[in-house]
Design a protein that fits this description.
Elements: H1 2-5, E1 8-13, E2 18-23, H2 32-59, H3 71-86, E3 98-101, E4 104-116, E5 119-126, E6 134-138, H4 150-156, E7 161-167, H5 182-196, E8 200-205, H6 209-221, E9 230-234, H7 246-251, H8 256-262, E10 265-266, E11 277-279, H9 281-291, H10 293-309, H11 312-325, E12 331-332, H12 333-345, H13 348-351, E13 355-356, E14 359-360, E15 370-376, H14 389-393, E16 402-407, H15 419-435
Parallel strand pairs: 6-7, 6-8, 8-9, 9-15, 15-16
Antiparallel strand pairs: 1-2, 3-4, 4-5, 5-7, 10-11, 11-12, 13-14
Length: 439
Amino acid sequence: MLNQMLGKYSYCVAPQRLTRVNIVSGAGGDWSMSYNAYEIQRSILASASALADMGSEWLQNPINPMSYTTFGPVIASGLEVFAHASAARGKPAFGLDETVVNGKTVAVREEIVVRKPFGQLKRFVREGVEGGPKLLIVAPMSGHFATLLRGTVERMLPTCDVYITDWRDAKLVPLDQGYFDLDDYVDYLIEFLHTIGPNTHMLAVCQPSVPCYSAACLMSEDKDPCRPLTLTMMGGPIDTREAPTEVNTVATQRPLSWFENNVVFRVPMLYPGSGRQVYAGFLQLTGFMAMNLGNHLVSHWQIFKHLVEGDEDSAEATKAFYDEYRSVCDMDAKFYLQTIETVFQKHQLPKGEMMHRGRRVDPGAITDIGILAIEGESDDISGLGQTKAALHIATNLPEAFKRYYMAESVGHYGIFNGRRWRELIAPVVDDWIVTHGSR
C-alpha cells in the first residue's frame, strides 16, 4: 500500500548505509503524513500476517484432509513465508543466558548499569565469575537495535566482562527529554566509560567508530584516568575519502538541506515521541532491502523451499536472521544530520576540524591507547582504508600501539558476526586486549 502512495523517487541516506528508495516528498520537512501512511500499511500487514499464519497452521493440521494432499503443504509454506515477512516487529531480546568460561558453563544475566533518555549501558553479568578484561562494545545507532551485535557479544563473553550501549528507539523518547546529536553521543560514551571505570577496552562496530575515536581524543587530552586501554574499530567510516563506496558517494551528491527536507519525518501522535523529527527506521529498512533486493528474494525463496522439503532447521535459521534484520528503530534527526555533515560530507575528523561543544577533537592527543583497525576485504559499506585511516591520523601514537587487520573475503556484516568473526577476527581482538592489558 505504501509503495502505491509514494510519489517521488529519491535517495535514502543513513550514517552507515545509503541507497535509493521510493519516498514521498514533504513540505518544509513535515513528513508526519507519510509516517502515518506507513503506520496504516503496517497495521494492515500485521492483520494479514496473522491470517496467513492461521491459514498455514490449518493447512498443516493432521485433522485437515488438505494436509495430506500435494498442494496443501505447498500453500501452507507460502503462507508461512508471507506471514513471517509481513509480521510486525519490536525490539528483539539478546537471549544470551549462558556462556562457557574456562571450560565451565556459567549463567549470564543482563543488568542495566546506567539509564539515559536515548540509551542505556547494559552489562552481561557472568554469575560466579570475577575479573577479566572490561570491554565496552559500542553498538551502531544506524537503524538497528544493539541486538544486531548478539554474535559479537556472545563471542567475547567467555573472556571479557562485557558491556554494551543499548540505544533507544527515538520515536519512544518524549520531546521533553530533549534532543540527541553527535555531541551527545560522545558525552554518553565518556559517561559510560567513567561508570565502568579505569582499564576498560572499547570496541566500535561501524558507525560509532567516529564518536568513539572522538571520545578517546578528548579523554586523552584531559589525561582522563578512565580513557580506554584499547580502541578496536571494525568497518568504521573514519575517513570516507578513502576508497569511497556507493554509500559514501550518495552522501556527497546532495546538500545537507536536501536530506533535512526529504528524509526527515515527524513521529505521529500514537508514539511517546510524537512530534520529534527523526530519520525513520522503516525508511532505513527500505534502503537496506533495496540495496541487495535480489539476494533477499533468493533468501525468501530458499525459506519456501526448505519448508516444502520439511527442512525446518534451515528455514528457521534464515527466518531468525530476518527477525533481527527487519527490527529497526528511528534516529533523532539532529544526530542523523550532524553525522551526514561531519562524517560523510566534510570529513572533519581526519582533517582535524571536528568540534565537540566548541572544542577541537585532536587525534594527536592520543598517545597511549592501543588502536586496532579491522576492515573486511569485501566490505561494500566502509571501503578499504576508511578505518585504517584512524592509525595514520594518530600522529603521536607509537607504532607499538597501532595494528591493522584486513579480513580476507569478508563483507561488512561478516566483520562482527558469523563464523569468520568467531574464528578469525575475534582472536585478533582477544590478543590485542591481552597485549594492552594495563597502562
